[in-house]
Every structure is written in C-alpha cells, then in structure tokens.
C-alpha cells in the first residue's frame, strides 16, 4: 500500500510538472499581454519600464525556470495586475469555491443516490423512465443558460433570492444570508451533476440487486429499505465512488462559469479575470491548485476502493 501511495504521488508531481509547462508556454505565447502593460494611457517608455520591472522582457524559458524555482520554495509569485501575492489571492478565493462545491456535492448525493436506487428497483416502470428522462435533460442543459434562467425567475420576477454575490453588501455577515446567495449557484451545479450520480447509481444497483445474496435477504423477510439501501447499495458503492471522484474536478471546472454568472467570489471567477487580464502568475497559481486537487482526489478515490472492497489490494 505504501509503495502504491508513493508511486501515485510521484506520478502526481510529474503530471503537475507537465501541466505547468503546457499552461505556462501557451498563455505566455498567446497574443497580447498583461492589462497592466496594455494600458494605452501609458507612454511607450512607461510600458517598457513596466515590462522590464515585471521580468517580461526575458525569454519564456528563463521566466518559466524562475517561476518553477519559486514554486519549489513555496512562492507562487505576485499578480502582474494587482501586485498581490498569488498565494494570498488563492487563500481568499479557495474557501469560497470549496464551500460552494462541497454544498453542491452533498446536495447532489442526497438527491441523486436515492433516485438512482429507486430507478433500479423500479426499472422498466414509468418511474424509471421519468428519472432517466430527467437525467438526460439535465445533461443537455448548458450551465450558463440555466443560471441566467434561475436569476430571471427567482431574482428578477419573484424577488425570492439575491441575484449575485456571496453576501448582501452593507449587511453584517449571517449564515442565513450566505445560504440564500448560495441556493441558485448550488442548484445550477447540482442539476448538472445529478444525471451522472443517478445513472451510475442505477447501473451499479441493477448489477447488484439480481445477485443471490440479495434474493436470499429478501427471502428471509427483510424490509425492502434495508435490503436495497444497506446490503445492495453497500456493494454498489465502488462505481458510485468512482464517479464522485470524477465529479469533483467537473465541479471545479463548472464553477468557472457558474461563479461568473452569479458573481460568486471563488477561484473560477478569479481564473476568468486572470485569463482576461493575461495575469500569467495568477493563471498558473489557479492551474496548480486545481491540478493538485484533482490528483489528491484520484489518490483518495483509489484508496477508498480497498476500504469498500477488502478484496482489492495495492501491492
């Protein structure tokens, strides 16, 4: 097991290195430059001086080597636009994205797993077809369109929920106010994630509920709820855990659009702002943060397999 973990960590570092190389060179070689330099109100001499001050006059390879050397020492550099440390910007935005993603994942699992179990138990019925149809529709809806639609309905038409932001401006922080701001972005992401959970849960349950031990449990007179949600679901968890491990990176990717639609001050919104302003160091910081989360999620998912099924061993 320890050898497996070490190997996966080494693979993770190699993956991060390759991602950093690809991202750094692509964004630096793209036309244009940081918004701080592209200010047309500045003179040519001022722009040249700022370019030299930020180190952008050096070759791309040299700049990458300097950036990588700083990362190894725990320094992600400074924003080219605001001159704030990238680590500070990430520490301010990362908890907001984690809060939204965690709430979305929990809500999605609470709704999606029971629906998947119900569809499997009632497979072939009108209920199964209705759940499958709703899942298909959910996969086809663009997140930006769904987010705008929710704003029009709940914020503009009925004034039930705030249209954007994380808290009401000028008010003292309150969890109730935060929850109201989080409902629409959470619903938008959940509707996009639900089809994956429902379909994988249904598929895994269909494979399990026809096995001999389930028929034996039902023949002994156990209640259906206990049979399906304790015995069958427990043995169907591995595919469900696998899709959860894939959903977490999708959540982070989907939050880029959703956070901008709802003005949620998270990493997704920071990434879009940095890409728009060609803030190279912030883009790299966000990329490394997301890449690290994806790698850690994959390692934890693999380790959970052996916990859920003792027959699985990593030698």
Automatic annotation (TrEMBL):
Domain ABC transmembrane type-1 per the UniProt entry, residue ranges: 94-305
InterPro entries tied to this protein: BPD_transp_1_N, MetI-like, MetI-like_sf
Domain of life: Bacteria
Entry keyword set: Cell membrane, Membrane, Transmembrane, Transmembrane helix, Transport
PROSITE patterns per the UniProt record, alphabetical: ABC_TM1 (PS50928)
Keyword Transport: yes
SUPFAM superfamilies reported for this sequence: MetI-like (SSF161098)
Main localisation: membrane
Pfam family, one: BPD_transp_1
Membrane topology according to the record: Multi-pass membrane protein
Subcellular location: Cell membrane
Transmembrane segment boundaries: 12-30, 98-121, 133-158, 178-198, 236-262, 282-305
PANTHER family for the chain: DIPEPTIDE TRANSPORT SYSTEM PERMEASE PROTEIN DPPB-RELATED
Family under the similarity heading: Belongs to the binding-protein-dependent transport system permease family.
Name of the protein in its database record: ABC transporter permease subunit
């Amino acid at each position: 097991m320890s050898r497996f973990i070490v190997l996966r960590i080494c693979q993770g570092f190699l993956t991060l290195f390759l991602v950093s190389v690809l991202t750094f060179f692509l964004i630096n070689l793209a036309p244009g430059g940081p918004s701080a330099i592209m200010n047309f109100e500045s003179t040519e001499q001022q722009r040249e001086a700022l370019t030299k001050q930020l180190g952008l006059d050096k070759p791309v390879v040299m700049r990458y080597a300097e950036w990588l050397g700083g990362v190894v020492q725990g320094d992600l550099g400074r924003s080219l636009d605001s001159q704030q440390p990238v680590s500070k910007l990430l520490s301010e935005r990362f908890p907001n994205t984690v809060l939204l993603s965690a709430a979305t994942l929990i809500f999605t699992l609470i709704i999606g797993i029971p629906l998947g179990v119900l569809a499997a138990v009632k497979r072939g019925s009108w209920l199964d077809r209705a759940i499958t149809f709703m899942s298909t529709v959910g996969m086809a809806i663009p997140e930006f369109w769904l987010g705008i639609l929710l704003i029009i309905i709940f914020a503009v038409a009925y004034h039930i929920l705030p249209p954007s932001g994380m808290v009401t401006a000028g008010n003292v922080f309150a969890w109730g106010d935060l929850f109201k701001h989080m409902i629409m972005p959470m619903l938008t992401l959940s509707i996009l994630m639900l089809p994956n959970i429902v379909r994988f849960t249904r598929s895994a349950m269909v494979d399990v509920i026809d096995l001999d031990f389930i028929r034996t449990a039902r023949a002994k007179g156990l209640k259906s709820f206990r049979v399906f949600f304790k015995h069958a679901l427990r043995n169907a968890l591995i595919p469900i855990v696998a899709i959860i491990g894939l959903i977490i990176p999708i959540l982070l990717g989907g939050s880029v659009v959703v956070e901008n639609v709802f003005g949620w001050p998270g990493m997704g919104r920071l990434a879009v702002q940095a890409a728009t302003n060609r803030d190279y160091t912030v883009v790299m910081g966000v990329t490394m943060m997301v890449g690290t989360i994806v790698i850690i999620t994959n390692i934890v998912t693999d380790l959970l397999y052996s916990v859920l099924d003792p027959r699985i061993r990593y030698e």
